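In response to reviewer comment 3 from the previous cycle, which asked for concrete evidence that the modeling workflow produces usable outputs, we include below a single protein chain processed end to end. The sequence was submitted unchanged, and the resulting structure tokens are shown without manual editing.
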Amino acid sequence: MSAAAAIPEMARARPSTQHEALRFVVGSLLSVLVVASSHAEEPGATESTWHYGAYFDLSYAVDFNFPGNHRWRSKTTTPRVDELTPNMALAYVRKDASAQSRWGLELGTQGGYDTDALVPAPIPDREKPMPGADTLRHLSRANLSYLAPVGNGLTLTAGLFNSFIGYQSIYARDNLNYTRTYMADNAPYYMMGIGAKYPVSESLQLGLFAINGYNYLSHINDQPSYGTQVAWKPSSRVTFTQNLLCGPDQANVAWKFWRFFSDSILEWKGEQVTLAAAYDIGTENAVEQPNHPRTFWTGGALYTHWHVDGPWSLAARPEFYWDRNGRITGSRQFVRAMTTTVEYRLRPERQTAVLRLEYRYDESTGPQGGYFQGGEVAPRVIGLVPTQQLLLFSVIWSFDD
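The workflow returned the following structure tokens.
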């Protein structure tokens, strides 16, 4: 999921692959609409059980470095600048599991530049895209769930589902700012495997997961990774979530090469103001390097959001990300960024329209840090500078039934 992995993948797209992906998206979209329409008028169906919808996300980012390749270095979502960019399009159908109807399902299809980096570039002993990965990235959800009548209700899910890690979603509409943090872009947005969640009480929920790996579209070995989640709500306004993930994400599955990753989130949510802090830290020994050095990466962000009045909101977010060994972003760098957002949100019946104006200042230092600037300084080499300023305009439309 690193930016370094994203750029080669985008560069080597072939017409045949693009045509296959297009056919897959169209076919999946038709399947979603058929399933949704078949249940929309089903006598036993209710709005609380069956849901379907669509989503479209378009942006224009003015990068005042004006890079000739139109790329945002070390970024996987919103990766393109200085051009009108369809970042995400989505269609989905969902049936909720409940005590009255215990089976649930999710099926969704997606496309756009935000899906490109989901496919990892091959790295010997570290990453190998699974067969059909470039097509599978167009699936947003494909899972079945079951609410078992055990105690307070045990929810079991199998298939492709939303990642339990992280405060931000890959879908910009669901976030306080338009652009995502570096820590969000370099942690899983999706997972493939099985999961179980159990509400011990109104204030405590536990989760257990077995998944195919940190990057769900990579297949470097046949061993699963494992995750846990503890979500504690000590009051009506405060939630603390601790997520842990560990497993073999390299060709050698020995215990000493396992990846260990922690994601901690603390949120306070008032009537008009939301405050949240998130911190990630990960480590693993490098199989492919001499003497197998221990690699390390970490990141954090502080989220603030104020609903000013009516459709207007403001948000600000400082963040940092340190990739000490270049393990995740592909560059040894320390990144700092500040993001401020003005939002205008309308909610006509069953629809949401979100207009956002966002300013970002990013700084990347370290042996391999920097952002693209101007044209080529050598054949196929774009110059780098330590800072970047962006002014982003975005329009997000969604329909939910």
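Confidence is low (pLDDT under 50) at residues 2-30, 32-37, 39-47. We consider this sufficient to address the reviewer's concern, and the full set will be provided in the supplementary archive.
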